[in-house]
Amino acid sequence: MALSVWDALAIGSKTVTYAATLNAAGAAWFLRYCHGLLVEAHRRRIRRIVFALAVLSLCGGAVQLLITAGSMRGAAAGMLDGSLLHLAWQAGAARDNAVRAAGLLLVAVGMLSQRPAWFAMLGAAMAATSFAWTGHARLLEADISPFLLGVHLLGAAFWLGALAPLLIVSGHGDISRIAAPTARFGAAAIYVVAGMMAAALWLLSLLLGGVAQLWSSDYGRIALCKLGFVAVLLCCAAFNKLRLTPRLLAGDAGAVSSLRTSLQLELMLGVLILAATAALTTIAGAPALD
Ligand code: HEM
Fold this sequence. Notes:
mainly alpha; 10 helices
């Protein structure tokens, strides 16, 4: 599979848009369900991060549009061609960008109150699921596929978006202030991650159309790569939940630096997973759609 410069640019900008959107949504939820457990300084930092990620997400969407127009012409001049930009907008960018922007606006406004407002949670869900408005899942005959992708995206945002806030929280000098939000996230994450994975595996089976496609198609091979990264991420998450959280709850200060290292590793793996996903949805056609 030959990768053009336009493909590489499209994958890069999509990865940034995924990362910014899912992290903004998940961090907004984290701020609400852990609000009472956080000190004001940490709440302020998380709020600032949510705002910055919302802006980055919108910029990422705009850059993606420019790159799509440029790739249609096969030259940078295409990025400034109004008719190509219009075509790219109508070809699929319109609905998901509009839903994402509306969701992020709700998040930003809802973040202004002391405890994030309920409509900010709704906005975060709109932004996270905006990717389900276009793409392979929409083209499948099975009506359930956009729903499965929506569930998958909500779970991915919940998981990924809690990592940066937890990293911030882990800088607190009082271990009980670290242990409580980590335990609260971990208790919910078990169910959320299980639901997210079930929806994702179901969707993958629909898009592949057969197990053999996992190794015989480009789509399957990229999906295998993604599954490999997810497996390592799951190991880190299990280590946090089963080993580090009980030590934190018992007041063991030695667990804090391990938690920070594990969270940083999880964030890096998150970027790799999103890059693999961007490749999956940009350069590989789903076998079931051939
Ligand atoms: C068991 C693990 C997972 C499986 C089987 C899986 C599978 C899938 C599949 C089949 C799609 C649809 C791709 C397409 O439209 O062709 C998808 C989309 C997506 N996945 Fe996953 N995934 C998994 C874990 C994750 C994780 C942990 C993250 C985040 C860190 C993630 C982020 C995404 C995103 C952002 C999309 C949206 C792509 C789009 O439609 O634009 N996935 N996933």
